Amino acid sequence: MAPVSCIQRLLGSPRAWGLALAWAALPAPAQTAAPRPHPTQAAPRAAAAVWVNSLGMPFVRVPAGRFLRGSSEPAERLAQAYPQLERGRLDDLADEAPVRTVRITRPFYLGQTEVTVGQFRRFVQASGYRAESEADGTGGYGYNPAYDPAQSARGDAFEGRDARYSWRNPGFAQGEDHPVLNLTWHDAQALAAWLSATEGQRYRLPTEAEWEYACRAGTSTRYPHGDDPAPLAQHANVFDQDAAPYWPRWQAQAAPGHDGHAFTAPVGSHAANAWGLHDMVGNAWEWVSDWYGEDSYAHAPRDDPQGPATGQVRVRRGGSWHTWPFYARCAFRNWNTPQTRYTLVGLRLVREVDVPPAPRARQRTPR
Fold first, then answer.
1. How far is the C-alpha of 273 from the C-alpha of 216, rounded, in Å?
2. Could you give the CA distance from residue 236 to residue 33 in angstroms, rounded to a whole number?
3. 36 φ, ψ (degrees, to nearest 5)
4. pLDDT tens for residues 248-299?
5. Does pTM top 0.90 for this prediction?
6. What is the C-alpha separation between 193 and 31, in angstroms, rounded?
7. DSSP state of 169
8. Of 234, 297, 364, which Cα lies nearest the Cα of 102?
C-alpha cells in the first residue's frame, strides 16, 4: 500500500549542564474505567519513581514485560463504538495486525511527559542547534483563523509550510510547559544525541513496540482508561467540544465533553496511566524510531522488535490535541517523512537503563 499522506491520516481519510537527580513518589494514578489486564502483560504499578535530567525532563522507569501489540477488532464492532465514521475508515487498519505477544526484555526510562517548549528551548540555548524549520528557511505549519481549509488546495486543517511557523510559533499561544511541536524526526534525533553526549547516558526515541507497551501500561483496551471513547476528553487532550468550534467542518468527529483546551495543554494536565506516564494519548503525536511498514508486525521478532531496516516514512504514535477519538487508540499507527514538521507533532524520549557489566570470568591458574 502506498503511504497515505500526513494530512490524510490526520483528518481521518481512508487511509549537561550538571546532571540533576530528583526522586519523588507519585500518587497512585486514578482511573475512571476498568481496563482489561492480560495475563502476559507486566502488572501495573501503584506508584512510580521519577528521574529528572539536566534539561528538567522527568523520566519514569518502565519494567520489562510482555504485551499484546496491535488490534484485530472487527469493523462491525468498531462501527458500533464510532458510528460517526464511514465504513471505509474502519476497514483501513490492516497495519495494526496481526495481534501478537511481544516481549520487552529490558526495562527503560521513558519521558513522563512529552518534551516541552521550555525543555527544547534550553537545549537550543545550550547547544546552538537550529531546528530544521528554521535552518532550511521553509518553516512549519500553524493555526491561522483567517485560513479556510475548504478553500485550500489540499484541504489541510493548517496553514504552511511558512517561515512564520516553527517550534517557537505553532500559530497559537503556548506556555513553556506545553508540548513542543513542529519538530522533525531529525530534530528529535539531534536532541537525543546532544543529551547523550552531554550527560554520558544513552538517549533515543522509543521503538514503536516500546511506545505501545508503555501506552497500554498493562491493559489491552483501546485506550489506557478503557474501551469507551465517550469519556476520552476526561482522560486526554484530543479533538473535543473545546476544539470543534475552530473547525466546524469536523464537528461531528469531536469527542463529547470538554478537556478544557482548544489547542495544546500543559503536559501532565490529565491523570497518568497505570505506570505514571502522562499524555500517551493526545496533546501531541510522538515520533518513534521505527521506519513504517504496513506488514511489519507479521515479520517482526517477538523480542524487542525494532521495525523495518529501511523505509521512506517514520512512525509517530499517540494522537494529538486535534485528533479524532478513533485515531487516538493505543493501537493506531501513523507516519510521516523524517523531514516533516507539523503543528501536531512532538516527541518524548527514552533514557536507557544502565546495565552493570557482566562479571569477568576468573582465569584458572595452571598447576
1. 8
2. 14
3. -85, 120
4. 999 999 999 999 999 999 999 999 999 999 999 999 999 999 999 999 999 9
5. no
6. 36
7. B
8. 297
